[in-house]
């Protein structure tokens, strides 16, 4: 072998060794002993999902000067897990708030070497919350940002804790909402059937993976809502036929998720669409926006509109607002208490009012940088 070739081989070997060492030593940022806290009476709660479940106060993902997740109202705008932590933190344990995780490619490469990947991407959130913005059904079991295998790896460190645990799987909207035009034209289109089967398959695989090592853990499967109810879409699909078609396609998707729960007492289904319609309503029969106003107490009126002020159902970035998330947290507690008989204290309407009014009715905050 020529001297130049030997040098090249040596350089490659050194580069490979350096890469291996870097991957081995790449910290996930978790404080020592975080996953090994003393057991408590609180029910451990983990989350798999997308931006509907990614905490809004994550300053690693959403910097302090961002206009996302509430803008000027950011410090008072909470996602449903953040509401639960504040109202039922003694009964439901989402884990400590930690900046934890690694870039997806790093987590994936470590796993190829037989090392722990940890959470990916890195975010500042509750320990057991693996949801991340942009996630779709493909991210439950595979890819750089796979959620279920990494959650199970964390659960495996504390099997006794998860014997009485609860996992919420709330995902699918990012796999479905991009197909709305097709849904409006043909609710039985092959592409829609394929998307439905794929998501149901990935969610089912995540359930099986969790129960393979934690058979007594309860799992709540959450359906998806109708993106035609998004105020940004009010000027689209304004006909009876399109409205009916979208509803039929969505019913098919949600039915597939509901079937996964079946008669297994460890599984339950949360009907997100029915929950929304019971509060804000839906389009009229001819496809026109026809939504109600939700009253919370005597002073807070929440409309199905867009804006960072909490009186809007959706934030300016089109994610669910404070009032929506508080109402949803209330409904989730009721659902898992009913479905699994969990010893949870219902969130009364009066408690919700006491929580929301100081956040909504005090002086409006200043915009970042003002």
Task: Describe this protein's structure.
With 370 residues, the chain is an alpha/beta fold. The chain has a single domain (40-361), classed as Rossmann fold (3-Layer(aba) Sandwich), CATH 3.40.50. The protein contains 13 helices and ten strands. The chain has helices at residues 3-25, 80-88, 104-112, 138-141, 148-155, 159-162, 173-176, 180-185, 190-213, 240-261, 272-279, 322-340, 349-361; strands at 43-49, 92-93, 97-100, 123-126, 166-170, 218-222, 267-270, 294-296, 300-306, 312-314. A five-stranded parallel β-sheet has the order 2-1-5-6-7, with helices on both faces. Helix 10 links the parallel strand 6 (218-222) and strand 7. The longest helix is centred in the middle third of the chain and has 24 residues, at 190-213. It is globular, with a radius of gyration of 22 Å. The protein starts with a helix and ends in a 9-residue tail after the last helix. The relative contact order is 0.13. The model has no long low-confidence stretch (mean pLDDT 90).
């Amino acid at each position: 072998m020529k001297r130049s070739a030997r040098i090249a081989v040596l350089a490659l070997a050194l580069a490979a060794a350096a890469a291996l060492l870097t991957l081995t030593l790449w910290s996930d940022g978790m404080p020592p002993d975080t996953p090994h806290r003393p057991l408590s009476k609180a029910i451990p709660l983990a989350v798999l999902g997308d931006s509907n479940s990614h905490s809004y106060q994550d300053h690693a993902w959403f910097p302090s000067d961002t206009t996302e997740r509430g803008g000027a109202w950011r410090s008072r705008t909470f996602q449903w897990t953040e509401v639960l932590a504040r109202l039922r933190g003694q009964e439901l344990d989402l884990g400590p708030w930690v900046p934890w995780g690694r870039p997806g490619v790093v987590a994936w490469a470590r796993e190829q070497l037989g090392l722990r990947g940890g959470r990916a991407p890195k975010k500042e959130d509750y320990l057991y919350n693996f949801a991340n913005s942009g996630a779709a059904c493909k991210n439950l079991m595979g890819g750089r940002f796979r959620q279920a295998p990494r959650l199970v790896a964390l659960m495996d460190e504390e099997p006794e804790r998860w014997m009485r645990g609860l996992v919420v799987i709330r995902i699918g909207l990012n796999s479905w909402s991009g197909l709305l035009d097709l849904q409006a034209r043909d609710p039985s289109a092959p592409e829609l059937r394929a998307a439905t089967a794929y998501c149901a398959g990935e969610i089912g695989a995540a359930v099986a993976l969790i129960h393979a090592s934690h058979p007594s853990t309860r799992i709540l499967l959450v359906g998806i809502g109708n993106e035609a109810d998004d105020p940004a879409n009010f000027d689209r699909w304004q006909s009876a036929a399109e409205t009916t078609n979208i509803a039929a396609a969505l019913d098919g998707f949600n039915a597939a998720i509901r079937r996964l729960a079946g008669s297994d007492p460890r599984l339950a289904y949360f009907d997100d669409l029915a929950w929304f319609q019971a509060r804000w309503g839906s389009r009229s029969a001819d496809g026109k926006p026809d939504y109600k106003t939700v009253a919370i107490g005597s002073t807070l009126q929440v409309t199905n509109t867009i804006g960072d002020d909490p009186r809007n159902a959706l934030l300016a970035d089109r994610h669910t607002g404070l009032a929506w998330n508080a109402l949803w947290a209330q409904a989730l507690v009721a659902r898992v208490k009913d479905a699994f008989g969990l010893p949870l204290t219902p969130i009364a309407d009066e408690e919700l009012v006491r929580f929301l009014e100081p956040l909504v009715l005090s002086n409006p905050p200043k915009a970042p940088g003002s």
